[in-house]
Amino acid sequence: MSTPHAAADASSRHRIVVIGGGNAGLSVAGRLRHAGISDIAVIDPNDTHYYKPLFSHVAGGTAKASETMRAQADVIPKGVDWIQGSVTSVDADAHEVRLASGATVAYEHVIVCPGIVHDWDTIPGLTDAMRSPEGASNYELDLAVKASALLRDVRGGTVVFVQASGPASCAGAAQKPMYTTEEHLAYDVLLVEPPQSAPKWIGESGLASEPGGFVDVDVRTLRSSTHPDVWALGDAAATTNSKSGGALRKQTKILADNLLSVLSGREPTAHYDGYGVCPFTVSRSTPSSPSSTTSDDSPPRCGARPTGRAAVRGSSTAGCSLRSTGT
Ligand SMILES: Cc1cc2nc3c(=O)[nH]c(=O)nc-3n(C[C@H](O)[C@H](O)[C@H](O)COP(=O)(O)OP(=O)(O)OC[C@H]3O[C@@H](n4cnc5c(N)ncnc54)[C@H](O)[C@@H]3O)c2cc1C
């Protein structure tokens, strides 16, 4: 179990700093530590680590909310420091990360993997729809718990499953509870995969190729194209794969191998081929695992019809359109 340093008194220096203790950050930190690298720190603000792929199963009624959670202290790899804080910027020229507390953390190399942001407010009415009795999502745990009860209990009308049209974590994951729900025919629910984007501070720190962009990396080596001591993987990296935990299986190894090469004075030669996989449960007992090595980020299409009860006005997403209802 790792004891966190409080961010307020954590102005410090580490050889490797990992921003984000999610799937990507924990995996790459563990792999580097296992390879003998010491003085690694993971920065993450949260006491609780969430395993997001299970959120779909919570929504679909096949997993409990408690199964998705672990204490962050228990999942930080042994021998790795945890700085409990929220990063607000990276000064890549000064080799320094700034935290919301005002503390700074200096680094030799930084690995940027803070995940993706859910932009609920970019679709007018969507936040209100999520607060309505019929609105739910598998992208936030509280909404997934709500979805589970809605999909279990409702018995008339139409169910609309909406998936994001832009970059998304496990694009199309809204379909998963749809397949398990179809088996007991529920109606009159809106289940939404929200629009998603990169954390704003990435672009503001000059780590993206455009404002609001994901971390600009060489898509083969996962090293920044402009700052050689900056690396990125996971949902926050501007890679060409479909964003998923499955992609991390390859990305983590490639990034760790390349960083280990650089730390020992060699060139990074391991190449990521864009592999991604996002398993789908197409019924309560049938898994399916579409994988690819292409740059095609378009999610599987959703065949649901527009609903007469959804509370989102005039918006559309891949595969499903919503219309105003007056509810
Ligand atoms: C509903 C859903 C279903 C999914 N299903 C699947 C699936 O079936 N299969 C699959 O392969 N993938 C699935 N995924 C995708 C998978 O969960 C992600 O691709 C994966 O978690 C990405 O890992 P990550 O570390 O980049 O981001 P995350 O796991 O989101 O971790 C990001 C971490 O960064 C931290 N952080 C955020 N901001 C800051 C900051 N400013 N400073 C410091 N730390 C910060 C967060 O607290 C978090 O711990 C699903 C995702 C969702 C949402």
Describe the protein's topology.
Elements: E1 5-6, E2 12-19, H1 23-34, E3 40-43, E4 48-50, H2 55-59, E5 69-71, H3 72-75, E6 81-84, E7 87-91, E8 96-99, E9 104-112, E10 117-118, H4 126-131, E11 135-136, H5 141-153, E12 159-162, H6 175-182, E13 189-192, E14 196-197, H7 200-204, E15 230-232, H8 245-263, E16 276-277, E17 280-283, E18 286-288, E19 291-292, E20 316-317, E21 320-321
Helix pairs in contact: 1-8
The structure holds flavin-adenine dinucleotide (FAD).
Portion of residues in helices? Answer: 10-25%
- Pick out the low-confidence regions: 294-327
Ligands, deduplicated: flavin-adenine dinucleotide
Radius of gyration: 20 Å
- Strand-pairing-aware structural class: alpha/beta
Largest sheet, strands/sense/barrel:
8 strands, mixed
Structural summary, described in words:
This protein is an alpha/beta fold and 327 residues long. The chain folds into two domains: 5-116 and 198-263, FAD/NAD(P)-binding domain, CATH 3.50.50; 120-194 and 297-321, no CATH class. It is 22% helix and 23% strand. The protein has eight helices and 21 strands. Strands 1, 2, 3, 6, 7, 8, 9 and 15 form an eight-stranded mixed β-sheet that branches. Strands 11-13-12 form a three-stranded parallel β-sheet. A hairpin with a 4-residue loop joins β8 (96-99) and β9 (104-112). The longest helix has 19 residues, at 245-263. Mean pLDDT is 84; it is low at 294-327. Flavin-adenine dinucleotide is lined by residues 19-25, 43-46, 52-53, 55-56, 86-87, 113-115, 138-139, 169-170, 173, 199, 234-236, 243-246, 278-279.
